Amino acid sequence: MAVRQLTAETINRIAAGEVVERPASVVKELVENAIDAGAREIEIVTAGSGLSLIRVTDDGSGMDAGDLVLAVERHATSKLRDEDLFNITTLGFRGEALPSIGSIAHLEIRTRQSAAGHGIGIVVDRGRKEDVRPAALNPGTIVEVRDLFSATPARLKFMKSERAENLAISEMVKRLAMANPEIGFSLTTGERMGLRLPACAPGPEGLLARLGRIMGREFMADALALDGTREGVRLHGFVGLPTLNRPDAGLQFLFVNGRPVRDRLLLGALRGAYGDLVPKGRHPLVALFVELDARHVDVNVHPAKAEVRFRDAGAVRSLLVGGIREVLERAGHRSSAEGGARMLDVLARRNEMSAPQQSWSPPSRPSYSAGFAESVQAPLAGLAVEPSAPVAHDMAPPVSNEAESADHPLGAARAQLHGTYIVAETNDGIVIVDQHAAHERLVLERMKAMLANGGVKRQGLLIPEIVDLDTDEAAALAEAADQLGELGLALEQFGTNAVLVRETPALLGQCDVAALVKDLAREVLTEGTTGLLEARLDAILGTISCHGSVRAGRRLTGPEMNALLREMEATPRAGQCNHGRPTYVSLSRADIERLFGRR
Q: In angstroms, rounded to a whole number, what is the distance separating the alpha carbons of residues 64 and 67?
């Protein structure tokens, strides 16, 4: 078969297959052109999920007749010179979008510069270009795309439902709007106004306002500001508290030099930064912006520019991980306000569904001596871990109001419920603490600090304990013995299906050694021993600290409860346990008044 030169029309349609995957791709290209043109207001209108109509109107700089003709030619662009390929500062630069769109749809462009007396327009109908003609419009540009993929009907078979395509368009506009808060955006889908985002003031406050409109008020309430620079790379934006999370990564937004990306390096760094602070299978909410010299990042590695390649990927990853961890540590014990809001919602629904009130009389209960809180111990150091004992009553005797001032972030302990929850009074409401989850995090942070300062202190067992395991588990623990020794657990293989434990971390007190070893065996066997200490440090320490924490069902004294609260306030990341769940929820006085219909 003879080799033939493809026609320009065929070449454009092939190129369109890479540039234009779906209607959202067209919206992206046209909106990016408007942003590059200096627009302050951008309006997007679609019909038929973008297949029937996509119209983008902007108030940017517009084009003259010569530029308009070249704009619909392949590889013609005002944004790039030959020597600038590695110094790209605009969103568009290839000069492929408009001719590619014009080859597979009906494309009409009308434009007017501010100094021109009238506008001009051009039509490209499925690859056939018409002459430039006069047009009436305000300064700026209007681009209309009709009958998308009409020249390549096979592509229509791969389109998703109208709802899915509309959602993809909306998500694309939101990402571009987040990267450009100083520009106003509106999106109309069919007859419905889908999105209206007024322009925001420059600066972090304006950015957070834009993010709140897109990511929700919960994110605004629980967002932590981040801004830092290292080795010429700036990282800024907002990250959510770990206790504010979702079952999917739909509210994780990453931008590089103003360009929305889904970069594996950045997403991996994000997961590493949050580590064990978020429950398995859950995802934090973030909006982060990386800015660096355009010569140090390649944005030309993906047809849709959705991925980038950094010259020094390690520096970028280090900045992202370090920056996020620093702001999370500064947040200290703070937990998401969403927990209290969820509690209000559940209680409100339960009250609506409750049966008619029945008469009630308080159950008889024993009297308690006034000297209940006599056992005063050092903050948490004396909080010995004991085997769970049955709790005689659902609520511990109340703590004296004079015992501790409520003038603390987490207030003063007033009662213990079900041997599990500490109820504390603050100056503006109450805090309910899960004592096991909270102490679990405190023990973990102590162990991390010890490990960083030379190793975890050990305590020898008077009688070494033999723990029976299956053969694979025993072998895996024996292989990891040296690494586990650094974490305070000294053990050795004892036969083929058991290990002998000689020492345990001193922080654990009188823990259940057999249960601890069996849990660690499952952890090690599942993850393997290669690089165990480095790669699985948080998980291994988390398993150990779980066995060293105060158990649910353990009765605490007033001083013990207050000691726990004070250490939570002084410990980074105390707002979530080792599994990422919140350690406490808070209700303001106003929240409580709403529950009782006072507000």
A: 5
How many residues comprise the chain? 599
pLDDT tens by residue, 563-595: 999 999 998 888 888 777 889 998 889 888 888
Show the tokens assigned to 94: 């290839």
Residues 15 and 133 reside in one and the same domain: yes
Strand 286-291 vs strand 283-284: parallel, antiparallel, or unpaired?
unpaired
CA 561 – CA 451 distance, rounded (Å): 27
For 323-347, write each residue's pLDDT tens digit: 999 998 888 767 665 555 555 565 5
> Taking a C-beta distance cutoff of 8 angstroms, is the pair 409, 423 a contact?
no
Helices (H), 133-235: 162-179, 204-215, 217-222
* Lookup: tokens for 387: 């085997």
Is position 429 within any domain? Answer: no
- pLDDT of 276: 75
Residues 28/171, Cβ–Cβ less than 8 Å: no
Q: Would you state the structure tokens that stand for residue 120, as one six-digit string? A: 């001009």
Residue 76 banded pLDDT, cuts 50, 70, 90: low
Tell me the two tokens of residue 155: 């592509």
- Once rounded to an integer, what is the mean pLDDT over residues 387-409? 59
421 within domain boundaries = no
Claim to verify: residue 91 and residue 228 sit in the same structural domain: no
pLDDT of residue 378 exceeding 80: no
Q: Residue 184 belongs to what domain range?
A: 8-197
Closest CA to 368 of 312, 321, 331, 416: 416
Claim to verify: residue 231 and residue 104 sit in the same structural domain: no
Angstrom distances, CA of residue 432 to CA of 257, 335, 344, 435, 560? 43, 12, 13, 9, 15
Number of folded domains in the chain?
3
Residue at 87 is within a domain: yes
Amino acid 219: pLDDT: 92
Q: Are 277 and 576 in contact (CB under 8 A)?
A: yes
The answer to whether the CB of 502 falls within 8 A of the CB of 540 is no
225, 112: one domain: no
**Torsion angle defined by CA atoms of residues 112, 113, 114 and 119, in that order, rounded to the nearest 10 degrees:** -30
Our CA dihedral for 496, 497, 500, 506, rounded to 10 degrees, sits at: 140
560, containing H or E segment? helix 558-570
| Nearest CA among 233, 329, 234, 311 for reference residue 274 | 329
Tokens, residue 159: 């389109």
What's the CA gap between 567 and 196, in Å, rounded?
Answer: 45
Q: What is the mean pLDDT of residues 271-276?
A: 86
Which range among 2-11, 150-159, 384-393 has the greatest average pLDDT?
Answer: 150-159
Look at 555 and 207; give whichever has higher pLDDT: 207
Cβ atoms < 10 Å from Cβ of 409:
15
Helix (H, G, I), strand (E, B) or coil at 553: coil
CA distance 350 to 442: 34
Same domain? 187 vs 208: no
